[in-house]
Model the fold of this input.
Amino acid sequence: MANNNRPTSPHLQIYRLPLTAIMSISHRITGVLLSAGLITTVLFISALAGGQSSWETAHNILASGFGQLVLFGFSLILNYHLCYGIRHLFWDIGYGIDLEAASLGNKLVLLVSVIMTLLVWLLALAT
Done:
């Protein structure tokens, strides 16, 4: 017979994942989202081949508020994925694996990816 008073193992609702684990999961998710973004990019580029009316439709979608939000999100996940990938290169050579350096790396990846995204958008809006 099973003892119903036995403690159960921690569940995701109780257990708080460390930031490194959350960022690792996010890196995988952003990889999938970048694939979807690449397909969307190909669709918009193919609108060029469809003529002026199809390009104007695609341009209007990208110029809308929702389109700008999607482009901002795409650039943010692109920069995050890039920064986290560079972090992995450092891990591959054995640098930054200890707990203190990993914690600093988490913050650095988040900060640099946000700064890069803002710089890209500021430069894009300035032109």
